[in-house]
Write a structure and sequence with these properties.
- By secondary structure, this protein is mostly helical.
- Helices cover 75% and strands 0% of the residues.
- The chain folds into two domains: 2-68, Homeodomain-like (Arc Repressor Mutant, subunit A), CATH 1.10.10; 72-230, Tetracycline Repressor, domain 2 (Orthogonal Bundle).
- Helix 1 (2-11) packs across helix 2.
- The longest helix has 27 residues, at 134-160.
């Protein structure tokens, strides 16, 4: 949390009135942790700044030295989620960047592990998006679409190279994305079933690999269905 809040401080230094970095990061960590905890329990709109002050142990005046409104704090949190996804996608190892299948498997692994490390952040951004102001809602949706586009592009490269036997890469990417989301949204379900993150990743990768290698004959009904939709 402190590492994430240090990054927030770097990007939003002009909004924060406190100058001592160690104090800012420590208090931002308390604020953001409390904000995510309250919002994930009560909802974004139902969470008041007074409750946030009580939960974080800071005064109302103390909160206002870090942000001027709940909407500003929302922007800070969503910005960190989006930046984390963007940086993760940009860090693909050079050794696998040219291999569409390896790249695709890496995206699945890296995305699930990122959301494992930032679970409260991603649950908040996903579950509360419908309640956000218009600009914040768009930012939350754009963050989700980044990973979907990366999946689609890797699939398209595999199709172009003759590695993947599948059509509709955009549709497949849009079907894989909920599998990535399910890990952080429904964590308790998998915990009860004793499914750990490595097992979940391996299962998603296996499902996607088998789908990409599906023989053309097995894809006939899907092709017909898409043709009917287009008509």
């Amino acid at each position: 949390m402190e590492e994430r809040c240090a990054r927030i401080l770097e990007r939003h230094r002009d909004r924060i009135k406190v100058r001592k970095q160690h104090l800012v990061v420590a208090n931002l960590s308390r604020i953001v942790s409390s904000f995510l905890r309250l919002s994930n329990r009560k909802g974004f709109h139902a969470t008041s700044l007074r409750e946030l002050a009580q939960e974080s142990g800071l005064s109302m005046g103390g909160l206002y030295t870090y942000f001027d409104s709940k909407e500003t704090l929302l922007v800070m949190v969503l910005d960190e989620v989006a930046s984390s996804v963007r940086e993760m996608l940009d860090e693909v190892p050079p050794a696998i960047a040219g291999d569409p299948h390896a790249h695709l498997m890496w995206i699945i692994d890296a995305h699930i592990r990122l959301t494992e490390a930032m679970q409260p952040w991603f649950v908040f951004a996903f579950m509360e998006a419908k309640a956000f102001p218009t600009g914040a809602k768009r930012a939350a949706v754009d963050s989700e679409l980044m990973a979907e586009r990366a999946l689609m592009q890797a699939i398209e490269r595999g199709i172009a190279g003759g590695l993947f036997a599948i059509e509709a890469p955009q549709l497949l990417a849009s079907l894989v994305k909920p599998l990535l989301q399910d890990w952080y949204v429904k964590r308790s379900k998998y915990r009860k079933r004793n499914v750990d993150v490595a097992t979940y990743i391996a299962m998603v990768q296996s499902m996607v690999t088998r789908t990409l290698a599906a023989p053309a004959a097995a894809r006939g009904p899907a092709r017909v269905g898409m043709a009917r939709q287009r008509s």
